[in-house]
Amino acid sequence: MTSTSLPISSARAEDFDEMGRFLNFLFHHGLEPEAHETERVIFEPQRALLVRDGPEVVGTTTAFTRALGVPGGEVAAAHVSMVGVAPTHRRRGLLTALMRRQLREVHEAGREPVTVLWASEGRIYPRFGYGLAAQRLQLTGDTNELRLPPPTADEGRLRLDRPANRLADLSRVYDTVRAGRPGWSARDDRWWRYVLLDPEAHRGGATERRVVLHEGPDGVDGYGLFRTKSDWDGTGPKCQTSVDEVVATSVAGYRAIWRMLLSIDLTRQVSLLRAAVDEPLLRLVDEPRRLNPRLVDALWVRVVDVPAAMAARRYATDVDVVIEVTDDLLPENTGRWRLQGGPKTASCVPANGPADLACDISCLGELFLGGSTLTALADAGRVRELRPGALAAADPAFIWHRAPSALEVF
């Protein structure tokens, strides 16, 4: 790698168009006007960084200000996005410089103890201290081979509509479920507009997105966002249903929504590409292997402020452990930290005594949402047990009763 002397500068609102064209080129997309304007609304120029070589943009990154669900609550998290370097300027240290600058700014601002992102390639971000915090399942099933239990008398009523017409219902249901699901990000009106963005150029020949809503005794308590795509061959229809998200506050609503999604006339295939690893559908269908589950990465978390981050979440069991942490990019995190916590409270303070466990900062990112275990990291040689028995004693505290998941790519 060669070093670069190109300066990093803060972006301005008027830089958004140029940054959008630059990133669409890097990610092999065309510029879609409707999507571009929707993304302009969520753009925070004061959080964006860019590198120019003369007048030309050759590197960018930004962050969005949102809350992230964590075990037992939520935390302010910098949602990192728009990361890219021009192919003409690779191997010059631009990405490293951008990531270092961004992490330093987040740390010094003191408002967000973690950053979170989706990785275009998993090998990129661990070198900046990110850990794989949440995985997802990609499900693709043959609807002729999938059956749910018979409906019960209390399964309520289903209605179809356009998502934009039912935003209040969607937001209320989402917020109710989000309170108990690590990995879900807060959505205000701007972010709902982004999530529901549906330009024809992005549909891949499918229909516009629709929503099916479930009405229980107290009103709407579940929804499913989906679209269908026409496909026929010489034997007849083989249309496809693509599901974006199914969110329900009741078991009856969840089951009824999926019963409809699996039985739409003329369809033969259903897909859900951002399912939780503990997705209830896997326990509902009569032949789960027909869903062809494929485990892939979702959210990557970087702990920026160790004491603030580890105190912000809750723990499944009582824990009292001293962890020795190393952090090459943010040396303020390097040291021994005493973590005490449980289901209702937590604290993390500098420790004077000997450490029980040792790891680098990326391991704390993997543990942060409850999606990994200390034992798994130790078996990989990434967590070291310094006091015999400390691993087994602390491990149960870091998991959570719901697996972390992520419904949207930001």
From TrEMBL:
<dbReference type="InterPro" id="IPR016181">
    <property type="entry name" value="Acyl_CoA_acyltransferase"/>
</dbReference>
<keyword id="KW-0808">Transferase</keyword>
<keyword id="KW-0012">Acyltransferase</keyword>
<feature type="binding site">
    <location>
        <begin position="91"/>
        <end position="96"/>
    </location>
    <ligand>
        <name>acetyl-CoA</name>
    </ligand>
</feature>
<dbReference type="InterPro" id="IPR022902">
    <property type="entry name" value="NAcTrfase_Eis"/>
</dbReference>
<protein>
    <submittedName>
        <fullName>GNAT family N-acetyltransferase</fullName>
    </submittedName>
</protein>
<feature type="domain" description="N-acetyltransferase">
    <location>
        <begin position="6"/>
        <end position="151"/>
    </location>
</feature>
<comment type="similarity">
    <text>Belongs to the acetyltransferase Eis family.</text>
</comment>
<feature type="binding site">
    <location>
        <begin position="83"/>
        <end position="85"/>
    </location>
    <ligand>
        <name>acetyl-CoA</name>
    </ligand>
</feature>
<dbReference type="Pfam" id="PF13530">
    <property type="entry name" value="SCP2_2"/>
</dbReference>
<dbReference type="Pfam" id="PF13527">
    <property type="entry name" value="Acetyltransf_9"/>
</dbReference>
<comment type="subunit">
    <text>Homohexamer; trimer of dimers.</text>
</comment>
<feature type="active site" description="Proton acceptor; via carboxylate">
    <location>
        <position position="410"/>
    </location>
</feature>
<dbReference type="InterPro" id="IPR000182">
    <property type="entry name" value="GNAT_dom"/>
</dbReference>
<feature type="binding site">
    <location>
        <begin position="120"/>
        <end position="121"/>
    </location>
    <ligand>
        <name>acetyl-CoA</name>
    </ligand>
</feature>
<dbReference type="InterPro" id="IPR041380">
    <property type="entry name" value="Acetyltransf_17"/>
</dbReference>
<dbReference type="InterPro" id="IPR051554">
    <property type="entry name" value="Acetyltransferase_Eis"/>
</dbReference>
<dbReference type="InterPro" id="IPR036527">
    <property type="entry name" value="SCP2_sterol-bd_dom_sf"/>
</dbReference>
<feature type="active site" description="Proton donor">
    <location>
        <position position="125"/>
    </location>
</feature>
<dbReference type="Pfam" id="PF17668">
    <property type="entry name" value="Acetyltransf_17"/>
</dbReference>
<dbReference type="InterPro" id="IPR025559">
    <property type="entry name" value="Eis_dom"/>
</dbReference>
